[in-house]
From TrEMBL:
Gene3D superfamilies: 1.20.272.10, P-loop containing nucleotide triphosphate hydrolases (3.40.50.300). It comes from Candidatus Sungbacteria bacterium RIFCSPLOWO2_01_FULL_54_21. The keyword Transferase applies. One of its GO terms (molecular function) is DNA-directed DNA polymerase activity. It is an enzyme of class 2 (transferase). This is DNA-directed DNA polymerase. GO terms for biological process: DNA-templated DNA replication.
Amino acid sequence: MNYLLYGPDTYRSRKKLREMIAGYAPRVQAGTVDVLRFDAAEDDMSELPAVVRGGSLFGAKKLIVLERPFTAATPFDITRRVLAETHETKDSFVIVWDALLDVEGKKRLKEVEKYFNKRVEFTPLAGVRLHQWIKKEAAARGVALSAADRAALTARDGGDTWGIVQDIEKKALMADSGVAAPSAPPSVFDLGDTFFYSPVAARRILLSLIRAGEDEKNIFWYLAGHTRTLLTVKSYLERGISVPASAHIHPFVVKKASRVVGMLSVGDMTRMLGRFFEEDWRIKTGVSSAQESLLRLLG
């Protein structure tokens, strides 16, 4: 039996992987299951077929964890043969884990998708689903978060579940030590992270920035450029192509933008960029102030 966990949200997929392995712990301790791990990016994959076909001590069944076979720069034929052998056997249970797939990774998955008994893609969370997930993670750590707290987390981290969990754990540590967690003032980057997903939170951050003395036109131009960057990244991701160096977008920006655009469509962002052009004309001709245009864009 073969099970696939993959996708850009590696915090949730890793957590699921740990839970699945932990579920076999009693059988491992009883000696009825052997756990074996292979990383296609680091281990010698030529040994994998022998491990799958070989007998286990005392006839134990095998739980094989295979990581990064779709994204590792290694030949794929061994993975293909192994998955073809194990998808119907009851002697081996294979869990395949991988992250965000590029064009080559998607081609590899297409070749073997028929061999998976079950597959789960972990796409970025957004909106209500993200807030519900944050509440659950916070409750598991004994941290009470208000709606404003959750909005602040999503403003700072977007849909980055690794970053959100780190922030929640910091709050838990502060609470245990009796120290109040410092609250950082919102930045224009927080505004960019919430602009598409939470208009209410974005409006609050915008007005806070303006009250703090931030130049309205600079905010407008930042958001227009940010929208253009997100659209560029999304257009490449939609085609399954890595963002090339010729796009002149820093790799860190590409990584962060990839998380933000997960639930957005190219059409939505194209229309928003068009609205920015319209509002830019209004500002330059004196028909509207930058603040009025920004509030209009937020609905």
